[in-house]
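TL;DR need structure tokens for one chain.
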Amino acid sequence: MKPAGGEVAEKAKDSTRSTSVKKAAAAESSRSTRRRVAATTQNPAWLAPTAVVLLIVGLAYLVTYYISAGQLPLPIGDWNLAAGFGVLMVGGGMLMFWK
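>> reply
TL;DR here they are.
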């Protein structure tokens, strides 16, 4: 007999669904035991302060370069921009590992 009103028979709704509660619980248990969990280690004590110092040093380097009209901190021309942004990127990269 065909279900009325376009309804789908209960079996046809989800053929992969288990009708046994014990089977469903075992399947859920096996799925949850295979999950990877992040390590619960603490950050090294030096990580955050070092990253913040590098961010400040990189910013100070760039500000010094702009204020001195390109004469300071080193006589390497526009490569000072690369050096300043490089220090900033190292500090920002360190913050990616901070938990």
